[in-house]
Amino acid sequence: MNVKQAVLQLLIGLMVVACGESEAPDATADKTWSLPTAVVKVEKLPVTYMSTGTVVSDQRIEVSSRSTGYIREILVHEGEEVRRGQILIKLDGADVEGAINQAEAAHKTAELALKDANIDLQRFKDLYVRGNVSESQMRKIRLFRDSSQETLSKAKTALDTALSRRQYIDISSQIQGVVVARHHREGDLATPGKSILTIESSQGLLFDTFVAESQISKIKRGDAVQVRLDALDLSLAAVVARVVPVGDPLTRRYKVKVALPAQEGLLSGMFGRVHFVLESKDSPVVPLTAIIERGGLQGVFVLDQAQRTHFRWLQLGATTSGFVEVRSGLQGGERIVSAVNPAIGEGDIIQHSAQSVDHE
Q: Whole-model pTM?
């Protein structure tokens, strides 16, 4: 093959390649999508603060005896619910009954002694009138009668005291609640002030939490809060009951007590989280349908004036009613694709029907 033939073949090959390239479709051509868009609006959103805590009873009592005696029977166990007035503990009443019998005998003796003293006094009065008894003897008999009256009064008081101890043989509950601890067993000696049972009220439960000193000034009694309980998988609308104004010097945190509403299954000791509303702020919001994930990050497609898409990463906040707060990356007034298609690419054209972003 000579040089002319080689050059000719090369030119023919180049023409074929050029024709083939002109006939191939343009792979970089922009795509056009018909999707809804929206103008980002700014809403006033609450600024919340979350802290963890525990459900506690607002009333906890230590059940003890007012008199000394051996425990004959404990009628309840840990975890049992008790009602107000229910008998919890029975003490051995032998000592109490013995004291009552002694007091009754002393009272009866004092009554007889006073009766005899009154009879003697009446006799001496008659003798005194007739002059058979001196004034000194008359005075002594009156003093003896008065002493007998005082002795009877003391015996009556002692009897009343002994009888009052009878009501403490059976110890009843002063509240409706749950037995959380038994400190004694049957046969133990019960003494005044020494706890036998611990009962927590099942009514008026509180949620105890601790708040950082930087936030405590923003929390006031009566503030509405939301308490999330993991064990029950529900949120409860609650109210701040008390703010303890003395903080822990080590943790710099302050105790806050939240009053919980009555709820079936709610028990002391349950773990939860409380959300306080501290203030409000203006923030952009976008519908959840506009959020798409690219490269492991979440964002939206923003439209320019030519209706071309540009993906923008966002820092998102709380979600509510189908919308999500945008903490950074987007401003109010910008237009976005509100119902995104995962196949959308950078620079695609959107033919849209405008709709507003409205945070309900």
A: 0.55
